[in-house]
Design goal:
Chain lengths: ~230, ~450
Amino acid sequence: MSYELNVAHLYGDLMNTYGDVGNILALNYYAKQMDVTLNVKVVSLEEDFHAADYDLAFFGGGQDFEQTIVSQDIQTKKAELIKFIESDGPLLAICGGFQLLGHYYIGADGEKLPGIGALDHYTLAQDHNRFIGDIVIKNQETGETYHGFENHQGLTYLGKGERPLGNVVSGKGNNGEDGTEGAIYKNVYCSYFHGPILTRNGDIAKHLLVAALKRKYPDADFSQQEALPIPATF
Amino acid sequence: MSFRSGVATFAGKSSYWFLHTFLHGGSSLPGKITLKLDPNILRTLGAKYDVIVITGTNGKTLTTALTVSVLHEKYPDILTNPTGSNMEQGIVTTFLNAKNPKTGRPLAVLEVDEANVIKVTQYIEPKAFVFTNIFRDQMDRYGEIYTTYQKILDGVALAPNATIIANGDSPIFHSKELPNPIQYYGFDDQPDGDFKAKPNTDGVLCPNCEHILHYHSLTYSNQGKYFCPNCGFSRPELTYRLTKLGEQTPTSSKFEIDGHPFKIQVGGTYNIYNALAAYAVGRFMGVTPEQVSDAFNANQQVFGRQEVINVDGKRVTIILVKNPVGLDQVLHMIGTDTHPFSLVGLLNANYADGIDTSWIWDGDFEQLADRDIPTVITGGERYKDITFRLKVAGIPDDRHIVEPNLEKVVEEIKKVSTDRVYVLATYTAMLQMRKILADKGYVKEGLGL
């Protein structure tokens, strides 16, 4: 039997700055190996997001200007996004997407811009400084090590119910202080890892796909998919 | 370090320091150096010239070279800066090294880095600015497109009388009210339709009302005859129009501008934009379309970026790639080759390449999937990243050679089944590859850029 998953690429035409589309390409690459077809749709400004229509969602990072616009528009999708997340919908959010799932972030001109508060973090801004460079983190639960590149001005502080995606081995992470990087809440994975996090960390792609499959096909056996070997790409 | 190179390094560093310091105002300059050199040297030297500043993300070098060729048809004395010397040091050096002009008032056509425009306009009021385009480019160094444009405008603000000659197909160049006279060039060869840019495109928001722009016609990326269905913002009237696009191959393009036919010995739609910009400057400066055509025909060497190197019978073309839009355009260009070819991708991530390799995922390698390329070789210091990129793009393992070592890449190139080989390389990978080819005697030393 073959499987199908409907993927929402949230604001894919605006939040796409740092190779974010690589995540869609990587999901597709691993999905094929799992006998899964992905139907990817960009959901953008003035378009509805219905939680029931999607099995998986991806929300990338964008430029300051675009993120400001998205910060306004996403309020119209807030209720359905929260519904999706609370019903264990798998979602990957990077940089700006990560920030906008939280309560608020500080924009380029120092203004406080709203997120949707689906996750309990908030984001402040560094004063004329960015964290730029290679980063390595380790997930304490799975023991998996993730490699990436970070480039962010935001300082994110995790809240209730959130675990970090990993603890910083080298690099800066969420805020350069508490050793955390990214966030996990239910089936939501967040990170500052630029752009194509899944291309270097296929394990996360596998977790997302398997979670989506189990949620959509609760009676099927996915032990083969779970056993898919992910060779190192970095 | 030897005594001699120690002295040379010291001399280089102190002159760097000197130029750097005095160009920033020179308030703390030691008196003896001030006596030796005029702190306003750029103002003094630049005053003799009508200066044309060419800036933007992609196409600066070729547009500058083409513009110089075009203007040479009418103006005998033209000063220009060598490739790579587009920041303040290089520009000062260009003027310092200039010979005394033969005629009264020569031209200076300068390629200027986006952030360095202001370092020129502090001292010189140019006659014209040329804006080629602004795309995301090595963002760990340059920042976002709006920031880049603002840096250019900060420089332009000091020269409100200079004419701006801008790419009219790029919405960002129509986003701010400026006091300067402005002329636009662009593509006007298609009937009107209604399109949106590909989802993975930057800069598609209407600068006026922040809705997503539509296009009557699109060339590539976010460039074309844009309009906003919400507020009516649209592409400005063009002064110089590409009226017909003819045959395109990897080594040539035919087209008409304002009804006049042209041919350039280089492929790629992006290079047609460069030619269009050079035409616009030429016309602005009184060069006739016939003279522009002569200039395009006469100057083959300006297209050095696509030099073909003979490696034991293989026709090897090394092409510099540095950002997603450029990469996409190069992929499109080699896709116009009617002959079979092999592909080599060399990725480094040193400072000059951009230390973040994320951008390779924004290049549409998938467009090569149906080309049935017999051999693909990936290498360079970040070979793992480019290898996985091409794997995901659908290159089968049995046609894919992974070889980090560039010396061995050259050996693999000799073995491919095709006569033609395209090598796409980031900046430092290209330098390393050229050095190896030079050491083996396939190419003369030097960059050929």
